[in-house]
Amino acid sequence: MMEKTFDLVIIGAGPAGMAAAVEAAGHKLSVLVLDEQPEAGGQIYRSVNTTERLRPETYALLGDDYQNGKKLQLSFHQTSVTYLSGTVVWLVESDRTVHFLRNGSTNQVTASRLLVATGAQERPVPIPGWTLPGVMGAAAADVLMKSSGVIPSGKIVLAGNGPLLWLTASRLAEAKAEILAVLETINYSNYLRALPCLPQALLANEFLLKGLRMKSVVRKAGIEVLSGVTNLHAEGEEHLQKLHYTHQGKPRIIDVDTLLLHEGVVPNIQLSSQLGCEHDWYELQYYWHPVLDEWGNTSIDGVAVAGDVGIVAGAPVAEASGHLAGLDTAYRLDRISKKQRDDAAKFFRKKIKHNNAIRPFLERLYSPNPEILTPKEDSTLICRCEEITAGQIRKSVELGALDLNGAKAYTRCGMGQCQGRMCGLAAAGIVADTLGKSPREVGFYRGRPPVKPVTLAQLAKDENETIVS
Amino acid sequence: MLKRYGKSRGKTVSIWFEGQPIQAHEGESVAAALLTSGVKYLRHAQVSAKPRAPYCWMGVCYECLLEIDGEQNQQSCLIAVKDGMRIFRQSSAAENT
Amino acid sequence: MKTADIVVVGGGIIGISLAYGLARQGASVTVLDNAKGMYSASRGNFGLVWVQGKGLGMPRYAEWTLEAAEKWHNFSQELTEKTGNVIDYEQPGGFEVCLGEKEWSLRKSELEQLRDEFPGGNYDNQMLDRKQMQEYIPEMPLGENVTGASYSPHDGHLNPLKLLTALITALEETGAALDTDQQVESVAYRKKCFEIKNAKDSYYAKKVVLACGLGIKELAQQVGLNIPIRPQRGQILVTERTKPLLKYPFVTIRQTHEGSFMLGASHEEVGFDTETTLDQMRNIASHAVQTFPELSRLQLVRCWGALRILTPDAKPLYVESETCPGAFVVTSHSGITLTPLHVNLLPKWILEGDAPGGFEQFHLKRFDA
Q: To probe the interface with B, which of A123, A148, A384 has the most B CB atoms within 10 Å?
C-alpha cells in the first residue's frame, strides 16, 4: 500500500527529477516520483537500461552521453524513493494534491512540496505537409532509437537547425542510415549575432568540440549539407514522397521517405501553467517558461521546477538544478540548515555556470527559423488535432480575436487531445504577427485541467482507494 | 517506414494488429513495432480522416493513439509490446459524419 | 472624437444582435468592447436554444422564449444565406433528464405550474417516463438511475462561437463600426447626448445601449440605473470527438456538430472566479455517465468555468433610464435563445419606443417590491 502524503512529490524522472529525488532522499525526505515512461531517464536517457540489456548495438551507437545516464539511474533506484512508472499526472490542485492515472485508474497523493520536472519537448515545425506519415521530429527519431532501437528506413532528409539536428544526423550516419541531405534553415545573420558570445563559449570548449565532431561524422559519410534553406514543403498522398525547398534562390525537389524536422526544444509548461505559476516569454528562443528563483521555486508557494521545463539547458544543467531543488526542499522542511544548503549548492552552481557558458552562443546561432514561427502559407495546418490552418487563425484575428485564447475560441485551435502542445507556439506567432504585437503580448493558452486527457469514467470514479506500489 | 537497428534484440513476442499477427521484440514500443512491420500509419485525423503517424515519439503529439487490449486512446509510443496484445486502429469521428 | 446615432457597449451575442438589428433599421451604430472578454458568456456558454422550464412565475417570459424559439429556424437560415456562415443550428427537441423519482416529481410539478400559467394553455412540454424517453434515443442506452425526462419539441442547440462569428459578419456588412480592442471606461449624459469613453477615444451618440453582461453594472450606474445582476459560475466539460451518438440536446449533455460531447453545468455563487474545481468536474462527469453509461469511455479533453449573468429572478431585463433617456440596458442569461427577438423586435423599442406588448414586465420595477 502506498502513503497518501509525501514530503516531496516529483513529476518527471529525467535527469532533473532523478537528481532531485536522490538529493532529497539523502536528507531523509519521503519522496514520490511519478513518470510517464516505462523506465526512468527522461528523453535524454530514455530506456537506457532496456537498451543496454536487449539492444547492445544501439547502446554502443548512442555512446557516452547516453550511457552516462546509467549511473544516475542506478543511484536513483538505490534510494528509498517511491517511484511509479507509466503514470500520467492530469491535474494538480492548489493544495498540491496530485491526481494521476496509472494502469487505467485514477489516484491521488498530497505533497508538502511539489517539484515539476517535466522537461522539454521538441518544438513542432509546421511546414506545409508536416502531418504526412514519414515526417517527424529529428529529436523524435533520436528518442525512437533509444526507446525501441529503431531507425527510419529508406531515404532520409534532416532539416532545420540546432545541436540535436546534428546529433541525430551523426547517430543515423553512424548507423549507416540512408541520409540524402542535412538542410540547415539557419540564417547567416545568426552567425554574426552569435559571434560576440564565442569567447565565453570557448570556456566550455568540450561542447564546441562535440559539435564539430558531429558535423564531421556527417560530412565524412558524404552527406550533402546545405545552409540557408527556405520554403520547406513536404508532399505526398498517404505518405511523404517529395520534399520541396529553396536553396540559393533556386527551388529544388527531392524524393524522400523520411523527413526529420528540428528547430530546437521548448519547455513543457502544461503543468506549471495549470498550477497558475507566473510565466515569462524568452525572446531569444521563442518560448514561455516559468519564472523561477535561484532554487527553482515558482511564484506558487510550495511548487518548484527543475531542469529543462524552467529553461532549456540540457541534461547536465538539469541534473544540477535537480540537486539544488532537492537541497532547498530539505532546507524548507527543516532537514538541513540554510548554511548547509548554501554550502552544498556551491558545487552544483559551479557546474551550471560552466555548462551554461555555451548557451548564449548556441541560443543566438540556433534561434528558430522565422518561417515556422509565423507560417505564411494560409493552407498550412497548425493545429494537427482539430486541423486548423494558419489562414483560419489569421481570420480569427480579423473577427476580433485579440490574443491566443481568443483565436482558440474562434477556431478550436488547441482544443484537441494534445491540448495545444503541438500548435501553441506557432498559433501564438501567427496571432502576434497578424496583430502586429509580440508573442509576449498575445499570451499563451490558459492552463486548464486535464493536463492530459482522462476518461469520464476515470474522472467520475471515487478516488478513495490506495494503490499497490 | 522504420527498421530495426542491430541484430541482437529482446525475445520475440507476438502481437495482433487489426486481427493480423505481427512479430515484435520485448522492449519495443507498440508504435515502433507496428511501423517496422510494414504498417504505414496509426490513426486517422479527426476531421479529414487522413492517415497520421507519430511525430514526437514522446507522448506529446497524440498521433500514436490506438485501441490496445480493449482500451481506447492509448499512447502507443509510450507503451511496450506484450505477448498477445490486441491492437486496433480507432474509428475517427470524421469517418462517421 | 467619433459619433454615431447609437453606441452599443458589448460585443457579445446580445450586443452584436442588437447592433445588427439597429443597423438594419438604418441607424448608424458603433459597437464598443474589449473582445478579450475575460468573462465573456458568449464564449463560455453551452449553446442551447432552450424553452422548457423557462418563465415559471412570469408567463410573459415563457411566451417570449417560445416566440424566439419559433423564429429560430428562419432566422438561422437567413443569417447563413446572408453571411455564408453555418452555425450548426438544429431544433430536434430537447430533454432534461431526471435521475430518481424525486427529480422526476419535482420537474413534473414545475411543468404543470408552467402549463397552468401559460396564456392560452397550449404549453406542450411533457414528461416522459424511462421507456418513452428511450424510444427517442434507442441507440444510447439509459443508465439505471434514469427515471425519465421532461421534453420540449421547441428546444435546440447551436455553436455559440459560430453564431457570434456570423452575427459579426452580418453586422460588418451593414457598415457599422466595431471597435472591440478597448474596454469602455465611462458613459456620461450631457445635453441629451452620451459621451462614451475608452482608453483610446471618445464617442458621442444620441443613444447608448449597455449590453456588456457583467460589465453593465458599473456603467449603468453612470446613467442612473441600478442593475441587480450577479455572476454565477457554471463549469463545462468537453470530451474528445466521437461518431454521432446523440441527436437531441439535453440541458446538461449535448453532442456538438464536431462530435465532442459538452457536459454541464454547475451553479456556483463564487463571484468572478472562473477557475474549475475537481468536485464540480467530478459531479458533471458522474451525472453524464449516470445518464448515458456509453459516455464513460470518452476522454475529457478540456473544461472551463464561465459566468452566467443572472438577475434575481434569472429572467431578462430590458430597461430605459428615466434620468438619462436614451440609455438602455439589455441583459439576459438566455442571450442565445432570444437572439431572433433581439435582432428583430428590440431595435424598434430602442429607436422609436415601440415596445412589444407586455414588455413592461421585463422592466427593473419588478424588483422594487
A: A148
